[in-house]
Write a structure and sequence with these properties.
This protein has 382 residues and is mainly alpha-helical. 70% of the residues lie in helices and 0% in strands. The protein has helices at 5-9, 17-31, 40-56, 59-84, 128-169, 173-186, 191-204, 208-219, 226-242, 246-259, 264-276, 281-297, 304-316, 320-333, 338-350, 354-366, 372-378. Helix 16 (354-366) runs antiparallel to helix 17 (372-378). The model has no long low-confidence stretch (mean pLDDT 86).
Length: 382
């Protein structure tokens, strides 16, 4: 085909639909028969333009038309090549090709002439670069597996810790201990889980050695906040005091107060230790007084136990008025405390007031205090 639809519209074979549409509009305006007084030449030209646009504007018809153009171009190229390689003496049109000559070949080679050589197999040798790449691949694989394991262990430990903490707040000690142990299994250096499990072992199970092991592991973690670290030292001091290691208990209480001086429990427990184990009455009074003041500042009621201890320390120092004031403050909150009446009887006995001592011992005995009746019988009443 000397002129195809692309030539009619004046566009290239790679023209877009927009370019084809614009070319069609321009040619339709230029060659419309109405603009040329019905000239048949323009009418025929306008039909060609319309046909070309109808084919090229439709993607499916255009694809079929392009395929037709390509086949025609191939046929033309093939004919050109055949024309180019014709023999010089051959006529171009209708001349038969020359007859083929005899094919001359030799006989097939015998087996003696054939040589078969085995192809040698090349040995694969690892170079230094190959070893290095293999090592890097294995190292990356191990690192990836370790990172996945650590991540999964952390997630599992965290989940078990949260379940254990919920059971801990509900005082379900056995369930909480199981969850916390599972968390520690996946993350042995979990300070929060160690702390909570240690408190369960100390306060619920009274297994002070196991609690000390958990507290020791937890306190070795450097990222622990100051209040938690001080509380751990305080708990360790309580455990040491429970197993009779007063020296270690005192050092633990000192460490807790050095980290955080607002640890009320550490002040009170150190005062108790100094009173009963070390017989240091004046330092015991100072510690107990500090702890009781902090309790009062926190809005808590006075502790009858530690007021009693401080009164006993005052009694040991011979300051009977201060001892009596602490005992009477305890009686304001616990009017049926037989032990306090017994201690008031001892105080009156030390002041040579036998009548008051006999009265206090009698009240303590009526309230069921064990040693009060024996003390009353030994004190002659006037």
């Amino acid at each position: 085909m000397s002129q195809n639809h692309y030539h009619v519209l004046g566009v290239s074979p790679t023209a877009t639909r927009l370019e084809i549409k614009q070319a069609y509009k321009q040619l339709a305006l230029r060659y419309h028969p109405d603009r040329h007084q019905g000239d048949t030449r323009y009418e025929e030209l306008f039909k060609q333009i319309s046909i070309a646009h109808g084919i090229l504007a439709d993607p499916a018809r255009r694809a079929a038309y392009d395929q037709q153009l390509w086949r025609e171009a191939q046929q033309i190229e093939q004919a050109r090549r055949q024309q180019q390689f014709r023999q010089q003496h051959q006529h171009i049109y209708g001349a038969p090709p020359p007859a083929a000559g005899p094919v001359r070949t030799r006989r097939p080679a015998s087996s003696a002439e054939r040589h078969y050589r085995p192809i040698p197999r090349q040995k694969t040798r690892f170079t230094r670069r190959d070893y290095l790449l293999t090592f890097l691949f294995v190292a990356l694989l191990i690192a990836f597996m370790l990172s996945v394991k650590l991540t999964m262990d952390h997630v599992t430990a965290r989940s078990n810790y949260e379940d254990g903490l919920k059971a801990y707040t509900e005082q379900q000690w056995s369930t909480a201990h199981s969850y916390l142990s599972a968390a520690i299994h996946f993350k042995p250096s979990y300070p929060e889980a160690r702390h909570r499990r240690g408190e369960i072992e100390q306060l619920a199970y009274h297994d002070y050695q196991a609690a000390l092991e958990d507290y020791t592991v937890a306190i070795q973690q450097e990222e622990i906040a100051t209040p938690r670290r001080a509380r751990l030292w305080w708990r360790m001091g309580q455990c040491y005091a429970a197993v009779g290691q007063s020296g270690k208990a005192l050092r633990s209480f000192n460490q807790a107060l050095a980290v955080d001086s607002t640890q009320t429990g550490a002040w009170l427990d150190r005062g108790e230790l100094r009173l009963f184990e070390q017989r240091q009455f004046r330092p015991a009074i100072l510690d107990l007084t500090t702890g009781l003041r902090q309790r009062e500042a926190q809005g808590k009621s006075p502790s009858g136990r530690y007021l009693t201890y401080r009164g006993l320390a005052w009694f040991k120092l011979g300051e009977f008025q201060a001892a009596r004031a602490d005992y009477q403050q305890v009686l304001l909150n616990q009017p049926r405390n037989g032990q306090i009446y017994f201690l008031l009887g001892r105080l009156a006995e030390a002041q040579q007031n036998r009548a008051a001592a006999c009265e206090f011992f009698g009240r303590a005995a009526r309230l069921g205090y064990l040693y009060a009746e024996e003390a009353r019988l030994k004190t002659p009443c006037l």
